[in-house]
Amino acid sequence: MSQKAFKFRFYPTAEQESLLRRTLGCARLVYNKALSARTEAWYGEQKRVSYNDTSKMLTEWKREPDLYFLKEVSSVALQQGLRHLQGAFTNFWAGRAQYPNFKKKRNGGSAEFTKSAFKYVDGHVYVAKCAEALPMRWSRLLPPGADPSTITVKLSPAGRWTVSLLVDVDIEPLPESSNQVGIDLGISSLLTLSTGEKVANPKGFKAKFRKLRKSQKALSRKQKGSSNRHKARLRVARVHAEIADSRKDNLHKLTTRLVRENQTIAIEDLAVSNMVKNHKLAQAISDASWGELVRQLEYKSDWYGRTLVKVDRWFPSSKRCHCCGHVVDKLPLNIRDWVCPSCGTSHDRDVNAAINVLAGGLSVLACGASVRPDKH
Q1: Residue 108 and residue 101: Cα distance in Å, rounded?
Q2: Of residues 122, 147, 176, 268, which has the active-site annotation?
Q3: What confidence tens digit (pLDDT) does each residue in 196-255 have?
Q4: Known catalytic residue at 268
Q5: Active-site annotation holder among 53, 292, 350, 374
Q6: What is the C-alpha to C-alpha distance for residues 327 and 320, in angstroms, rounded to an integer?
Q7: Which domains, ranges and CATH numbers included, belong to the chain?
Q8: What is the pTM of this model?
Q9: Which long-range contacts (CB under 8 A, 24 or more apart) does 207-216 make?
C-alpha cells in the first residue's frame, strides 16, 4: 500500500469561506505564537520546548479573553499546526532544513484535518463546524473503496481554494522493461538522454517574464493598505501561479514518460541548493526545477517498480570520454562539443555526459558503491 494525494479545486460558499479563512488565520496565529515561544525559550534560557509543551500553551491561550476566538474553529487544525512546527524543528536539528519561519497572511495558508475533524460520505467532504459539503470540482475519481486518512484545505496566494485527500492505494507495478537510460540535466536542454534525445526546456518563467514585470510595476505604484494594492497583489500572484502550473504540468508528463519507458534510470545527485548560489545561473536553474524533477522520479519509480540510481555529483561525466575513458583536465561550460585527445572521438558534451551517467549508475548497481573521480 502506498499513500497518494488527490488534489481538487473547490469554490466555497460565503459562509464556508468565512469559516475556512478564520480557521487558517487561527492556525497561522497558533503556529507563530508557538514558534515565538520556542525561539525565546532557546535564546533566553537555552531550553528546548517540545510539542507537548506547546500543546499545553494552546490550552492556556484558549482561556485568554483576547484569544477566545480560537474556540470557534476546529481544534484539530490547530493541533496539526503544532505538529507541523515540531516536524520543522526536527528537520532543522537534523540539518535537512533551515530554521522555521513565521507564516504570513499574504501567502494564503493551509489547515490539515484528521479523521476526527472531517467526513467523507458518498463522494462529499464535510469539515468540522461546517454543515454543508465542500462544493468540489471532481476532475478525476478516487480509487474504489478509498477512505481518506487526512485532508488539507489550502488557500493559495492567488486566491484559489484546493483540498488534498490523502488515500492509501494499491499501485500495480508496470511491466518490466529492458530499457535503461542515463539523464544529464541542463538549462538549454532540460534533459539529455543517453539515447541521444534532447528534451527542450520550456522556460516557463522567461515566457511570462514581461507579463510578470508589468504586473509587479503596477503593484509597486499602489498605496500600501489600499484595496487597489490588494487587487494588484492578486494579479501578480496569478501570474506566478500560471508559471508554477505550466512547470509542474511539463515535469509530471516528462517524468511519467521516463518511468513508463525505462526499467533503470540513472541521474546525477546534484546539490541544487549550492548551485543556485551562482547568481549568473540561479534564475535559470530555479526555472528548470531540477530538484522537483528528481523528487518526482524518486516517488514514481518507487510506485511503479522502477530503479532510480543516483551517481555521485563529483563523477566527471562531462569530461570523461565514454569510448576510451580518458578524462580531460578542463572543460568550460561554453564548450558544448569536444574531441577526445586520446582516441579522437568527437563528443556532444551533454550526450557524452548522459552516457557516462548511465555507465556510472550501472556500476553503482553492480558493486553497491559510489563512483568517485579517482575511478573506484
Answers
A1: 15
A2: 268
A3: 999 999 999 999 999 999 999 999 999 999 999 999 999 999 999 999 999 999 999 999
A4: yes
A5: 350
A6: 4
A7: 2-169 (no CATH), 180-201+246-367 (3.30.420)
A8: 0.88
A9: 207/243, 207/246, 208/239, 208/242, 208/243, 211/239, 212/236, 212/239, 212/240, 212/243, 215/239
